[in-house]
Each structure stands twice: as C-alpha cells, then as structure tokens.
Amino acid sequence: MTIPRFPLSGEIINGVHHLVQRVYYEDTDFSGAVYHARYLHFMERARTDYLRCVGVEQSALYETSDEGLAFMVHRMEIDFKAPARMDDLITVTTRTERAGGAKMILAQQIGRDDRLLIAAKVVIAVVNRHGKPRRLPEGLAEQFRTGIETPVS
Question: Are 82 and 90 in contact (CB under 8 A)?
C-alpha cells in the first residue's frame, strides 16, 4: 500500500482541505469498527487544520479586538455510510459551502481509498468572546470561500 505524503496539518487541493488520519485501537469499539463519536474528533481536527491551512489562527482571532471572534459548532448533520476499522488510513475532507454573516457552512467527508464512509454538513456560528453572534469580517469570509490563504487586513 502506498501511503500518501501530506503535511501534518493536511493540504488544500482545489479549494478542498485533505487531512489523512490513522485509525487507532482507542478509536474503535468492541467490534473493531470506529466508535461513532470518534468521527467527531476526526472532523474537529480537520476543521482546525483547515483553518490553519487558509491562514487563520483561532487564538489570534480571539484576541483581535475588544469583542474577539470565535467559532462554535451550531449544528451537524451526519450520514454514516460505512465503518472505518483499526489501522485504516482515512482522509477527512473539508470545504466551505458558505461563509458570511454570522455563520459558515462546511461540508466534510471521511473516506478510505475511494469509499465514502461519512458525509457531514457542519453549521458554524461566529461569536464574540462572550458567545454573542458576530458578523464574519468580509476578508475572512473570502479566505474561507476561496479556500486559499490570503492576507487579512
């Protein structure tokens, strides 16, 4: 088996972030399949690394102004198509469907080889450091829409 070579935080190809992860024993249930809640961990890691790859540092955003800026998962829809198993190499993909106003919508998938295992739609709320809704600055929204790193002013 050829193991793909990706940077630690994955990489963006044609506007889609790809993050390769290995399934470990701790990710599985008694049957050897990945426990359903562990997929949330894989997707969270991919979303965080997606932000890094488009040039967004969450801690810096939080400290940018008097009110700060943070992201919170508001809603998730997940379709479980097939299980991953211990030692599998899975790829988590993340792409922005919409970014603007006080939310972002991300599409995430988890696959093994050419097989789709998980499909998810994640609605992210944009909030200030007090948890109140806040508009996503247009320059930042554009970074997410293009999926490439661009300077934010």
Answer: no
49 as an active site residue: the answer is no
Q: What is the pLDDT of residues 96-136, one digit of tens each?
A: 999 999 999 999 999 999 999 999 999 999 999 889 999 99
Distance CA 3, CA 78 (A): 27
pLDDT tens digits for range 28-56: 999 999 999 999 999 999 999 999 898 88
Catalytic residue among 29, 66, 79, 114: 29
> 102: exposed, middle or buried (C-beta count within 10 Å: 0-12, 13-18, 19+)?
middle
Three-class DSSP category at 117: strand
Judge whether 92 and 42 are in contact, CB under 8 Å. yes
